[in-house]
Amino acid sequence: MFAPQSPLSPASPGAIGTYHADSHAMVIETSWDRSRRAGLRTHESQDFHALATTDLRLLREQNTELMRHAAPVMETLHQQIIDTDSMVVLTDAKGVVLHSIGDDSFEQQAAKVALRPGVNWGEAQKGTNAIGTSIHERAPVVVHANEHFLTANHGLTCSAAPIFAPAGDLLGVLDVTGDYRGFHKHTMGLVRMSAQMIENTLFRRTYFGQLIVAFHARAEFIGTLMEGLLAIAPDGRILAANRSACLQTELSLSSIRTHTALSLLRRAPSELFELAYLAINKPLQCVLPSGVRIFAVPATTSTRTYAAAAREETSAAPPERATRADAPVAPTATKPAAVRPDAPTQTLPQANFDDLDSGDAQVASVIARLRRVAATDVSILLEAETGAGKEWFSLAIHRASARRDGPFVAINCAAVPEGLIESELFGYEDGAFTGARRKGHQGKLLQAHGGTLFLDEIGDMPLAMQARLLRVLQERVVTPLGSGKAIPVDVRLVCATHKRLRDLIKVGGFRDDLYYRLNGLTVRLPALRERSDLREIVSRLLHAQGGPQWRLAPDVWALVMQHQWPGNLRQLSNVLATAMAIAAPGTVIGRDHLPDDFLDDVAELDSGSGSAANVAPPTNVSRRVSTDAAASLDDLALDAMQRALARHHGNLSAAARELGVSRNTLYRKLPKHQLRPATPQG
What CA–CA distance (Å, rounded) separates 4 from 180? Predict the structure, then answer.
């Protein structure tokens, strides 16, 4: 029987965490058995075969998110072990090296054992080694000197830890490999902490905008790598948990996901969302099902989900609702006339034309035009500021069309990471890339077959995806990633953007051929400040979110009617939802129930009213935006600001209202571009 001579022997203090000498010896022994069964021989020469440059580039693109978040951690880790004749290595889930950072002194030794990008270090190719064995064990592994199966690798010491996605899938491995004479007992600990750091960053990025609860039995550990993380949906469901959360709750990830906030933390989701929204960072005491008391801090990077959660307490049968387009919630089976789980989230009594018509003449005109084409398959492009109701109108178009019994599928092109949008739109086959779901994934285009596909923020779609989408629209077939089979697809397309696509075309940011394909009917939705039906909208939102018992005090009505609402309907909905959450049911909503940021905006507007908000018109106001493809979108933004200031004779508040941004945003931009405020008049 093989008996490895490990530096993690009982005589050595090198065992870190739960990594013990006895279990280590068993891991190495069973790995050697697998290596033999794979047909490898200990004195076999190294396999230097690596992926071709184009294949490696594709593999890196498929692992964009992993590489993006791992790169800074790898740099930091390398600085901690610099000048130790070693190298930091990142691989995909199969063991193929994606990226490495190493000491110059170790490069020659690494080259001799083919430790370089594009080479597969899985067990089947390299025998027992930290990378391949960590993948098989799904746990941190140290392989030192002659513990390596291949004699050629006996000069190495390697410490590797797996990196998992929030859903529990293996994404890759982080490894430190060096000369065996430079072994240090703390290397494994550094690698494990670095892998945890990458996982936590990916967790927060994946659930950006969702409620994330950080917790630990000791309050001082919140904010460290030791904290547990839970992602919680607006209805209280646990969407995901990091590894520390699983350890602290003593539950598997699948078990945690069967819980709700109420059953796991004994706290109603509305309470957690309220604390997150109000940014109350004082740890909240909770009790786990095991009886262990913990401290928890809820936080969110967006109030979008809060508005929904604040409207209801946990119930046994919460109403069906949609979540963000980028929320990693497993999709349910498509049902006739069903809105997909990643459809828009804003709340209105109903999303049909009759309910959207609340008395404004501009909106009535838009609805009249949309009614005339809703029953056809003409593509529709909605132009509007962020939060102006593009999602509601797209759903109303679907419900007025002949496809109303088919699926309505929505995706926010700006919310999905660039490296994932291709697989989200077109789908993929089983094994198409690292981290892919078993049995593959049906993309949004195929999910929308027979119905409507809503592409929100189409202006943010990468150019490469624009070309593929154009091809789908022309050929009416979809080819999922990793598949050679073209699948017929029948969808009606509704797109929306807050940008001017014509301006993007001028600077090479959007394809003109795709624009003309999408531009069957273009309508502009008015901003909230331009509408005459604000009082009716407020009344409807109050009724939809809390019933007829909610009323506004006269001074609050005055503030609401006078405010410019740069965030449009979304901002208005969130302000009302927050006020209703703070006020007791049936209470008249007063000024003290309004969120502080809204009151700050109101105060800022009041202090800047009149001529005091004027600024001198900038010189060269009509500065033409270059049509060269290299021109930046910043030029477009600056040009728009300059033109707006010129139209309003330097009035900063009026220009900000037109642009749909705050006065602070213009103030921040003006000094940067050497535009100086004028001396206040009179």
Answer: 14
Whether 78 and 191 share a structural domain: yes
Closest CA to 269 of 581, 643, 37: 581
Which of these three, 607, 635, 656, is where a domain ends?
Answer: 607
- Quick one: CA torsion of 580, 584, 590, 591, rounded to 10 degrees? -70
**Taking the model in full, what pTM does it have?**
0.46
Q: What is the pLDDT of residues 224-275, one digit of tens each?
A: 888 999 999 888 899 999 989 999 999 998 899 999 999 999 888 888 887 8
Please report where in the chains the tokens 């989408």 appear, as a residue.
469
Specify the CATH number for the domain of residue 298.
3.30.450
Distance of alpha carbon 640 from the chain centroid:
29
- Find out whether 256 and 249 touch, Cβ atoms under 8 Å: yes
Partners of 9 in beta bridges = none
User: What is the per-residue pLDDT across 534-552, written as a single tens digit (0 to 9) for each?
Assistant: 888 888 888 776 666 678 8
Structure tokens, 585: 């049911």
651 versus 553: the higher-pLDDT residue is: 553
Q: Which of 88, 85, 83, 84 minimizes the C-alpha distance to 73?
A: 88
Tokens 């999905």, residue? 416
The Cα 640–Cα 623 span in angstroms is: 10
Cβ-count burial of 181 within 10 angstroms (0-12 exposed, 13-18 middle, 19+ buried)?
A: exposed
Q: Give 246-249 contacts, CB < 8 A, sequence gap 24+.
A: 248/215, 248/216, 248/217, 248/288, 248/292, 248/294, 249/288, 249/289, 249/290
**Separation CA 271–CA 366 (nearest Å):** 39
Residue 348 lies in a domain: no
Domain count, the chain: 5
